[in-house]
Structure to design on (144 residues):
């Protein structure tokens, strides 16, 4: 059961470390000519930090040593901090004039729900899925 938990948590960790590296180091973010140089600097700093945090979390999860369950919880807590930061930023967009997507970035996906078209943001959808998997991973750790 614990190995399953580590695998699920590994996917969750890769979701905040590898996925943004792939999604953000291109013309939609880090090399976006419409972004100010300082904004591009911040996205590179953010993604590099996520990669570092992800490596620490993976080390806690997979390196041999005592207190493996505690280390798995700590790895999950690191993931929660990163994903939590995303959702805090999303919830507080009105305070700083933010938006979930950029016109020349990844657009929201139109989906029909009960006869009405809704726009589904990719980041919210993907990160919500990873948070759900994180909860499942923590439950698997608790189950032993």
């Amino acid at each position: 059961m614990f190995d399953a938990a580590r695998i699920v948590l590994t996917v969750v960790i890769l979701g905040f470390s590898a996925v943004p590296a792939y999604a953000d180091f291109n013309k939609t973010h880090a090399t976006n000519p419409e972004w100010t140089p300082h904004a591009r600097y911040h996205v590179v700093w953010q993604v590099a930090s996520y990669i570092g945090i992800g490596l620490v979390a993976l080390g806690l999860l997979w390196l041999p040593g005592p207190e493996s369950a505690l280390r798995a919880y700590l790895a999950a807590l690191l993931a929660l901090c990163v994903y939590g930061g995303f959702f805090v930023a999303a919830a507080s967009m009105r305070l700083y004039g933010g938006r979930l997507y950029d016109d020349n970035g990844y657009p929201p996906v139109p989906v029909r729900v009960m006869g009405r078209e809704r726009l589904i943001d990719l980041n919210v959808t993907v990160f919500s899925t990873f948070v759900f998997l994180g909860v499942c991973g923590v439950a698997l750790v608790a189950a032993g």
In short: The mean pLDDT is 95. Strands lie at 109-113, 116-120.
